């Protein structure tokens, strides 16, 4: 059997650190949304699905979840700069408090696009939570309310993040061996 772990060069963020930080983020979100009578978590697919499921279970306040399919990468490790909506929300966001849940902010293009798209639908408020951020790669500014970890400019996989659709199921954030990119 081919084992995905064999392609991993090293672990950048362990499962334990991810769990701890997700709990801290949930407590922060509870504080900052305490006055909201509703909250809609918008999971940005596919990368956000593992983080969303842990974050949602860590949140003690009432909330609902919905999913949006977005594609910004052509299949390699560099953003194409073009954001495509592959699947839209099932819920209306008009008049609702929404929180976008994203795996990683790299250039910022995906979130900038999503944010203005969703603001156009007139939510009551809009917040953004990202598990990872690569500040040194930012090309456009986006206001982010919650950041799990700031990481250096390295391509990472696991915990929802992929290379060519693989490695999303690894339970940590890791860096691939150079030969795995072939
Ligand atoms: P941005 O539009 O450049 O901010 O790119 C955001 C999207 O690119 C993320 O939602 C990811 O899907 C993908 N991405 C950026 N950096 C990485 C990485 O290091 N590993 C895997 N996917 C990444
Ligand atoms: Mg993503």
Record keyword descriptors for this entry.
182 residues; binds inosinic acid; binds magnesium ion; 9 strands; Rossmann fold; 6-stranded mixed beta sheet; alpha/beta
Indicate the topology.
Blueprint: E1 8-13, H1 15-32, E2 40-45, H2 49-58, E3 64-73, E4 79-87, E5 97-105, H3 109-119, E6 125-133, E7 146-150, E8 156-157, E9 173-176
Parallel strand pairs: 2-3, 2-5, 5-6, 6-7
Antiparallel strand pairs: 1-9, 3-4, 8-9
Helix pairs in contact: 1-2
Structure, briefly:
With 182 residues, this protein is an alpha/beta fold. The protein is built from three helices and nine strands, in the order E-H-E-H-E-E-E-H-E-E-E-E.
Describe the structure in your own words.
The protein is α/β, with parallel strands linked by helices and 182 residues long. The chain has one domain (4-69, 83-176): Rossmann fold (3-Layer(aba) Sandwich). Helices cover 21% and strands 33% of the residues. It has 3 helices and 9 strands. The strands form 2 sheets. Strands 4-3-2-5-6-7 form a 6-stranded mixed beta sheet, with helices on both faces. It has a 3-stranded antiparallel beta sheet with strand order 1-9-8, covered by helices on one side. Helix 3 (109-119) links the parallel strand 5 and strand 6. Helix 1 (15-32) packs across helix 2. The longest helix is centred in the first third of the chain and has 18 residues, at 15-32. The radius of gyration is 16 Å and the shape is globular. The mean pLDDT is 95. The structure holds inosinic acid (IMP) and magnesium ion. The site of magnesium ion has 4 residues, from strand 5. Inosinic acid is lined by residues 47, 72-73, 79, 102-110, 155-157, 161.
């Amino acid at each position: 059997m081919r084992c995905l772990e064999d392609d991993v060069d090293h672990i950048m963020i362990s499962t334990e650190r991810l769990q701890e930080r997700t709990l801290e983020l949930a407590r922060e979100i509870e504080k900052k949304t305490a006055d909201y009578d509703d909250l809609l978590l918008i999971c940005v697919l596919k990368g956000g699905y593992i983080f969303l499921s842990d974050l949602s279970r860590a949140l003690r306040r009432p909330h609902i979840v919905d999913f949006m399919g977005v594609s910004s990468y052509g299949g390699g490790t560099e953003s194409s700069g073009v954001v495509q909506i592959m699947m839209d929300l099932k819920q209306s966001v008009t008049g609702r408090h929404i929180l976008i849940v994203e795996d990683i902010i790299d250039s910022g293009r995906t979130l900038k696009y999503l944010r203005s798209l969703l603001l156009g639908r007139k939510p009551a408020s809009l917040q953004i939570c990202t598990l990872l951020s690569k500040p040194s790669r930012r090309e456009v500014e986006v206001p982010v309310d919650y950041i799990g970890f700031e990481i250096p400019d390295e391509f990472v996989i696991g915990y929802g993040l992929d290379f060519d659709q693989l490695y999303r199921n690894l339970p940590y954030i890791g860096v691939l061996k150079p030969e795995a990119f072939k």
